[in-house]
TrEMBL record:
Taxonomic path: Bacteria, Bacillati, Bacillota, Clostridia, Lachnospirales
InterPro entries found in the cross-reference section: Transposase_17 (IPR002686), Transposase_17_sf (IPR036515)
Protein name: Transposase
Domain Transposase IS200-like: 9-125
Xref: SMART domains: Y1_Tnp
Length: 256
């Protein structure tokens, strides 16, 4: 079945979401986050992809980007970014195969009002996820570029010009909003936090990352999956934190 063509923005501006396969964690530590940012910087160079980046937020298992493409298509930009990061990530964690789930998701931005809405929505993602109490506390987003008026990486002028002044822009970023943009499929509320679940996984298996877990032998892996499920970690959460598909986890749990 042919792929459905993406909707193109008349402004050439898109909100993009890139997520880990099986919703697994794709950023294990600060070095992983920084590497992805370095790759964004590398391809922003006009000799490579020449795109404008208006906002980003790197969550543990997905990425939000707000960008404007110019001479290079959005598909080509995302392809280059994904390939470069996956090659680096697989080498670092001694793994092979896909890291990102299917094609990236995207929505076109067609007017300045919606551009502002997406801009705020991306920066409030950590707040909505409950990992910060006020906008700006989370380190892995472009919030700080706007707060510091730093245009050395993020192209802040296009969006800053939508406001009368700096204070109005920052007030807008701090104003809570229930306006939703394109988002990942909801996977429900887990009984325990990801942080607590990862601590359980590390204590019971000595695996420090999804890549470590995926290198386990089949028998040991399935034994661990049963034990972790009995510890109160849901199947969906196990899938996110280990990179093992829900079907494989259910099969392991149901084995006699």
């Amino acid at each position: 079945m042919p792929r459905k063509a993406r909707k193109k923005s008349n402004l050439c501006i898109n909100h993009v979401i890139l997520r880990g396969v099986n919703q697994q964690i794709i950023f294990e530590d600060e070095y992983d986050y920084q590497q992805f940012i370095d790759i964004l910087r590398y391809y922003k160079d006009e000799k490579k992809c020449s795109f404008n980046l208006y906002a980003y937020c790197l969550m543990d298992n997905h990425v939000h980007l707000l960008l404007e493409y110019t001479t290079v298509s959005l598909d080509e930009i995302m392809k280059r970014i994904e390939i470069k990061f996956v090659r680096w990530y697989n080498k670092r964690y001694r793994r092979i195969g896909h890291l990102f789930q299917e094609r990236y998701k995207s929505e076109p931005v067609e007017d300045m009002e919606y551009l502002k809405i997406v801009f705020r929505y991306i920066h409030q993602n950590p707040l909505n996820a409950g990992i910060e109490k006020v906008p700006g506390a989370y380190p892995w987003s472009s919030y700080h570029d706007y707060a510091n008026q730093d245009d050395s990486f993020i192209d802040i002028k296009r969006i800053s010009d939508l406001f009368q002044n700096y204070e109005e822009c920052m007030t807008y970023l701090h104003t809570l909003s229930d306006k939703m943009c394109m988002e990942l499929q909801s996977f429900g509320i887990y009984g325990i936090s990801d942080e607590d679940a990862m601590e359980i996984i590390q204590k019971k298996t000595d695996c420090k990352s999804p890549a470590d877990f995926q290198r386990l032998g089949l028998l040991k892996r399935n034994q661990y999956l049963k034990e972790l499920k009995d510890s109160g970690i849901s199947v969906r959460q196990l899938s996110r934190l280990t990179g093992i598909s829900r079907g494989a986890i259910n099969a392991a749990i149901n084995q006699s």
